[in-house]
Design goal:
The structure is a single chain. With about 350 residues, this protein is an alpha/beta fold. It is about 40% helix and about 15% strand. Strands 2-10-9-8-5-3-4 form a seven-stranded mixed beta sheet. A hairpin with a 4-residue loop joins strand 6 and strand 7. The protein is globular. It binds pyridoxal-5'-phosphate.
């Protein structure tokens, strides 16, 4: 039995993780001081890998946090003048809105349907200084195509754009120039254990943070940024995770090539899904289907049975999430998953549920 984990977060980690961990121990990384030259060197290598492998524009800055949830809080504390407007169609976008509302009660929202996309003309956000968008909605397997981000940018040139890319960053090509804040935690497309997040900031985001001047918290943006600019960290960080990220990126193909593989695999998944009975894509419109997270809809009994049958074959399928908890299952299409595991799972599905 091969065994394969398709949970969309925390998800299958890269196969070389034990080797990287062992190197981290042997190289003394695990005990390194975050104000040391060794840490500065690690930061330098990590940033070099991030900018080159993920194609982050050189005028954007990179900082680290511990989770995407922490990024929600950092944005609310340090980047919102007045209020924010949240545009979402699923649980993670909604959670971001509700977390922000606790800090900024005036924040507003617009929700949209799974097969609709975002129509910039229908967004009424006059009073908001920042628009918040979940680019890849892990709860329902939708994504916001880059052209819709571009349209939002064009419709609201004066507002900051903040993007949750937790389940897409490092899996697909993102045009970082289209938004001011991008963030992701690493237990999805990076193929890493949880406990680290990355935030990418445009020059305008940094300017706004300066204008706001928040310095009240241990994770106030300017304080964090000053530290990472100096190749240090604001507090003793998870250095091993930073090291793992550096090694993983170093061994990865360029994001263009990773993206091609993900799209190709997504097409293979769709070919298989079209042959299954009792299971359909939750998202019908191909242009809104996330390349990295597939949500399949069926009767709750079918979903339950399928998940336990799969488990008997060593295959872990993702539970439904939020509103779609009982009538969907989710399949991660993240880069760390190996082709033979995908073949194994697809053979299982076709054998048991093929028409
Ligand atoms: C997983 C996920 C989160 C939450 O990530 P944490 O690291 O647990 O905070 C937020 N947004 C999206 C889109 C996610 O997929």
């Amino acid at each position: 039995m091969i065994g394969a984990n398709f949970y969309p977060g925390p998800s299958r980690v890269v196969s070389k993780l034990p080797e990287y961990y062992s190197d981290a121990c042997n190289e003394g990384i695990v005990s390194i001081n975050h104000r040391s030259d060794g840490f500065a060197k690690l930061m330098h290598s990590l940033k070099t890998q991030l900018y080159s492998k993920l194609e982050i524009p050189t005028d954007h800055e990179v900082i680290f946090a511990s989770s995407a949830t922490e990024c929600w809080e950092i944005i609310a504390q340090s980047l919102i003048i007045g209020s924010s407007h949240h545009i979402y169609n699923g649980s993670f976008g909604e959670k971001w809105y509700s977390y922000t509302k606790k800090i900024i009660p005036k924040s507003t929202s617009t929700s949209f349907g799974l097969n609709e996309g975002i129509n910039a003309q229908e967004i009424h956000a006059k009073d908001a200084a920042i628009l918040c968008i979940t680019q890849n909605e892990t709860s329902n397997g939708t994504h916001v195509p880059m052209q819709e981000l571009r349209a939002l940018r064009a419709a609201f040139p004066d507002k900051l754009l903040a993007v949750d890319a937790t389940s897409s960053m490092a899996g697909v090509v993102l045009d970082f120039s289209l938004a001011d804040v991008w963030y992701a935690s690493v237990q999805k497309c990076f193929g890493m254990p949880a406990g680290l997040a990355i935030m990418v900031l445009s020059p305008r985001a940094v300017e706004i943070a300066k204008a706001i001047g928040d310095d009240k918290y241990y994770n106030s943006l300017l304080f964090v940024l000053d530290n990472y600019r100096a190749a240090q960290a604001p507090y003793t960080p998870n250095v091993v995770s930073l090291y793992l990220m550096m090694r993983i990126l170093k061994d990865r193909l360029s994001i263009g090539e990773v993206d091609r593989m993900i799209q190709q695999r997504h097409a293979e998944w769709q070919a298989v899904i079209s042959k299954l009975k009792g299971l359909n894509n939750l998202v019908q419109h191909a242009q809104y289907q996330s390349p990295t997270v597939i949500a399949l809809e069926g009767l709750p009994e079918t979903i339950q049975t399928l998940k336990s049958e799969a488990l008997a074959y060593g295959i872990v399928l993702g539970n439904g999430y939020g509103d779609w908890k009982h009538n969907t299952l989710r399949i991660a299409n993240f880069p760390a998953i190996e082709q033979r595991e995908i073949n194994y799972c697809q053979d299982f599905l076709l054998k048991k549920y093929g028409r």
